[in-house]
Amino acid sequence: MNFLLQWMALLVSVAPYKPFAFLLSSATPRNEFFALARNLGIEIWRVQDKVKEWLDATKPPLFSKRTYLEPLQLQVKSSNLRQWQTAEKILENWGEVEEYLFQYPKAKGLVILDSIHEAQMLASQLREKGYEVGEVHGLSDRQKSEIELGKQITVATATVEVGVDFQGDMHKDFLIFESRSAGSFMQRLGRIGRGSCSKPNPPLHVWAYVPPYVAERINNQISAQVTHSELKDLIMQSYQYYQDFLPYIHKVGGMNLVHHYHLIAKHQLEKNENPILANIKQTIELLYGEGFESQCNRYEQLKQEKILEPVISFRGQNTLESHLFRLKSRRIDPEHLETFYPDVWFWDESIPEAPLKKYDFWFVLRRRVVRFITKEEMIAKVKERFRGVEREDHLATLQNDYVLGYAVAMGIREKPARLHWKLRSSVSKHKGQVVRIDRLSLEAPEDPWLNQDLKQLFHFAEKKSWVAYMVNLSIWELSDLLRLPPMFRIYPAKKQSADWSIAFNSEAFQLWSIMERVRSEVL
């Protein structure tokens, strides 16, 4: 949200006399976005409001209601989502799905899970039962998504929540999903029942797996029949509130604009009375309600401490900067080159059409049996496998990307590897601060082979360091204390035998922004 606003702010500041129109499409727009956008002086038109104004003014005689959201049967089931066992629960209750399919053998279904590993495992076990199963997730071949979505059962992740129209061959009659938040529940429920039919055949059926406290409240309060709006209200009331990280926006949200003020200033001949620079200054102050000099001082402090990089980029890439200034012409800051990003490039021969993948290191190392290789070996694999433009694109990406390491996936683990970050005793002085630290290592104490490989991996030839936030609470304690979103990236750490938590880069700043107000109460 904040990154998008900075794009808009930069455009209207650099070219104030050009007529910009920003078209934003979201089923769940956040009120905070509109509040910040109004600070820019941008006129906001909501489509729903304009349609209502037109209907009230013209009162068209042919206006009438029509069926859009189809009726469906909903079953809400309890699942321990924290233990990532929804796939097991689905298989335990698969008899209910079999009864439905016995009555309606041509019915097609969609399963949405949060974990790629669970999605892959469930898809494999459903194939063993004899079903035609497609997969759509971050590690599947995107070019075959339409084919996979057209199969009898498609097992997917959040990839299918946006930009997929379940019509024609991709139409689904039953839906199974897990949901860790109210927004996710309504978003996933909306993947079915848009055929504008008052009596769909087969009848639509949905199984929703939710936390136990949510299932209890919904099943106790839901009526035999509810409207979509009534159900939405009940869902919103049933889930607990999750952290929105608004303090992050107020504390470091303007750093990207300040950064680009300095970049643009270098390309301007007139710096004292330059209207473009004056516009950016004013925009920064209006957007965040804080003086430009104050924000500049914070920018310089972060830069001096070498922790600026995460607040002006998204997972290692600054799209504003790369669009404004050609990659070859801009000097890459040494801070960027040495910053650790929590991803691994890995080669997976089980997907021969698209074996090269980049994914979160935690998933790859916990769920895959891997063999680490060098960057040069990965480049050699790309040169051997790919040709033409595809090869050049992959090579360019690998050359300009900064990740933890490179690996070849050799199989799937029966049980996830137990990993934690090893902290030195001296980290206590950095507790509750965002710092750049260069002495960290990842350990797998229950897997000697992986543990030895990790020791070799962390002997970097080049300088490598981490922008991190560390706190002496376990990830479960911290999640409960701050009501962190379910997919928020924090990792377990150990200092001697004590449980700690660690977050990197932008997540480190997000934790820091909200922990300041509670740290004195709990630490």
Automatic annotation (TrEMBL):
Signal sequence range: none
Q: Which InterPro entries does the annotation name?
A: CRISPR-assoc_helicase_Cas3, Helicase_C-like, P-loop_NTPase
Q: Which domain of life is it from?
A: Bacteria
Q: Where does the Helicase C-terminal domain lie?
A: 120-196
Cited Gene3D superfamilies: P-loop containing nucleotide triphosphate hydrolases
Protein name per its UniProtKB record? CRISPR-associated helicase Cas3, subtype CYANO
